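Exercise 7 asks you to align residues with tokens for two separate proteins.
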Amino acid sequence: MGNLATLDIIIFLVYFVVVAGYGIWIYKKKKSAATGSKDYFLAEGSLTWWAIGASLIASNISAEQFIGMSGEGFFVGIAVAAYEWIAAIALIIIAVWFIPIYLKNKIYTMPQFLETRYNKSVSLIMAVFWLFLYVIVNLTSILYLGALAIDTLLGGDNLHIIMIGLLLMALLIGLGGMKVIGYTDVIQVAVLIIGGFATVYMALQIVDQRINGAAVGNALTGFQTLMNEAPQHFKLMLEKPVKTTTTLAMPENLDVQKYVVLPGLAMYFAGQWIVNLNYWGCNQYITQRALGADLKTARTGILFAGFLKLFMPIIVMLPGIAAYVLYSKGHLAGFNGVKDGAYSAILGFLPVGLKGLAVAALTAAIVASLAGKVNSISTIFTLDIYKKYLKADATEIQMVRTGRWAIIIAMFLALAFTWTDVLGIGGEGGFTFIQKYTGFISPGVFAMFLLGMFWKRTTGTAALVGVILGFVLAIFFNSFAVDIFGKETWLYTAFTYEKLENGLVHTITEIPFLINMGWSFVITIIAMILISLAGPKVNPKAFVIDATMFKVDNRTLVLIVVTLLLLTALYVRFW
């Protein structure tokens, strides 16, 4: 293991043995109780609220957060925390208004929701879309970024071996089904949080030692040093650049690059909500953890995850800012300034023992996300394609077996696409890569779900037009709008900047992708409403909504209020 000492290796092996042993124990314990497909794919009725909450976090916080978000912390700063903090509000919305509709209508997969509310055509199209997205974008980025980070930490030259190792660990957990995933995620998230906070604590001590010359670093002093040395990295709202065309020689060039990723206050009126509400509320990968539970358990688990999201930027973003300050002061020898290498650069400072814990935390995040993702791929393929279109009379055993083969094939495809990074994940920047390309489908999907849930007049034709139109509009705004309408319109402002990659200067003109998502969503919603107005006032397939579904008990209300108060304090402090 290259740069790891014996103690580090022992700590990592202990993590591996505990997770694997616990997973096998859960599998054997539950196997005799229930072996049906719903039990395998959804862990129906067996996950507690804390297991649901922990599993949501473990599945969400992966390589793209540890590596990609730390990279954006290095490049932009605390503004990227909006993805985590707005997610806390999104989870409140999902828990109060979305989940009751899913559970009342016995929805187990997102394509099933679309078939129940609209028709089979919309369901099939989206099932194929989701499978493509999960394998080609999500699974590949988690695997590539995670393996790259661990490989860098271990000294390099082992990327492919690490990829295979991560996939085998995820396979061991994923083949056991959602129960094994859900309960092992509790251990994974514990390791992730302990290792993550330990890494941040040590990073802040290192900042105090290197920047202030302290003999024994103090974490609080180190944090204050970050704020003093990089005040621009502690602003949640980025100002819109005055100049829309910049070159490498201009200091404004970096400001433009930051703004196109996180367009200040504008993103809160556009794509930021679409990203979070679609991810947390219309995403099989996430909602699957709650769909097998009762309303009270599901709601509490989701709100627990929302509360934990408030603290995630400390783990996944703060190391990037520490790397920026150390790098700017010449204390990161060997680091080339590429943002996705920031987290690994910080891990290189960790002492014996703690480095092994950090690798275990990173591995836990990656393996949990890989296992959860392939389980969702398996669920959609088996329940929404195999059972409905390939073998309608499939037995429970055949469905579980098919689900396991889907997991194996998905992992093989992910390995094939990441072996030489044919998708260019490393060059795009991991976190931005995922948000940008997921954004092509998010506006249409969220519009379809939102109107399907809360407007009884929405028709199947409108849904089909909406998902296609949302996708087309996202591509149009991303690739063609500037050439047709110019850089400055009442809809958007496009920016031209230069970027250095592999020694070559590239000139890029683009509209901030979160703005693209916002307009794609608005236009799609308008189109769906106009089409639906030609249909009946109440669509025969509309859901029956009872206001009592959305009532919350006092314990739930307290958790919501506490989360909102903490979030308000964070925005007031770092606005």
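Second protein for Exercise 7:
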Amino acid sequence: MPAGAALSGGVAGPDALRPLLDAVLAGLADGAALRGGPLPAGGPAGVAALVAAALGDREHRATSATGEPAEPSGQGHPGEALADDGNHPARGRAGEPAVPDDVLRRLTALLTRGSADPADPACAAHLHCPPLALAVAADLAVSALNPSQDSWDQAPAATELETALVRDLAALVGYDPATAAGVITSGGTESNLMGLMLSRDHALGRAGGHATELGGLPRDLSPRIFASEAAHFSVQRAAAVLGLGERAVTAVPVDRDLRMDPAALDVLLKEAVGRGETPVAVVATAGTTDTGGIDPLPQLADIAERYGVWLHVDAAYGGGALLSDRLAPLLAGVERADSLSLDWHKLGWQPAPAGVFLVRRAETYAPLARRAVYLNPADDEEAGYPSLLGLSLRTTRRPDAFKIAATLAALGRTGLGRLVDTCHDLAHHAAATVRAHPLLELHTTPVLTTAVFRYRPASGLPADADRVNAALRRRLLTEGRAVVGRTELPGRGPGRVRLKLTLLNPHTTPAQVDALLATVVAAGQAEERDEAERAGEPEGVLEGVPA
């Protein structure tokens, strides 16, 4: 057998993995040292050259043991990584057989050097957490064994483990585990799609008099989904995938904290019903992507109940608050949702994917029921062999429940809750620092772990603020100094661009948050100086922007 063809499972699997894992760990250390910051400097062109030098240039593609690439000559193409000539750098030096651990170390170093590292305190743009080492190690076991959750005979223990975890998570959100149901998903996008699919089949099947999943969409109905202006874009995408069309989504106004306005929802639902339209779902958000805002769930549940409309809560971000005694009350009312999305690869510190979809009543899952004779034959189920096939949109599905279960077993809700509280404290520290700085402006008080703000240019003009804030963020990316988020507030016209720190690293210190904000200010000042030079403005015209 060729080198590198050993298997990861069986009795011999651990011995085959051990030197390769050592190579991966060495490559991670090599690449992090070469990167020297939160992301590689040079922007897209620099990273493209880095990868091309390692994979695509036949004359200059040799890499050192630490993954240091030579400068690319412009020849070759990254697609040559698939060439079967035995001489590609991903297989070994020209004319020499590949050494798997050497290959792995060099390519891991390349990947690490060219990555944005959420474990770096200056990498704070997205809901992109640094995973716990414990969870990553647990994920290794899953990869080595490669179970698939579409039939019991491919994943006996994993099937039972996921079933138990779903029961525990149902109890965490306030559902009755005996009557709820759910599944582990790839994340909030898949979970939101599932919630809206079940709500579609519930509402349109009831209104049209036939099973929508079998007969398709009734032609004489006008379905409507109601979500806030700050809801995740996956709601529109789900509406398109489900055949409803993005225009079926009605945007409900929000307040300054990007929370849905219940009075506006009531009016919009009343108007839709008056026009003969069919409300399919109200989508509440518990933790908006930009501000962490949480919609008023009890009021929205009251309104949805009054109109007989399915309530889906997207708690992909805010669901992590349920781990914290301090923050859990923010999600009061979530237990009244018909369906719910959670993501443990946000405020749960799991490597992606680690999404969860739950329904309050298991019978509402009926449209997803599926029988495949080679996976879950009826006589197997009658004989006591359980099946998760009818709980997911996917067939092949890895047991991502394992890493979540391992983390909960080791840290418990209390341990994870402390991590949530630490990140919440960091967000409030960031907000206090922003408030105290004359060149920064806070948008709103943090709810979860996100601080939204902007740099204030000397001119004070809204259009200038938008331009400078967008440019300073790109400057930081190009220089490899920081990864800061960018967003735009709802509305029209200039003055809506904001920056954000999404603080998901519980090992970050308040001093490191202050340093990151100082870096943002320095980049803003540098951007203003550069703009003045390009415009040929006289020295001193930008008062308060030091050289």
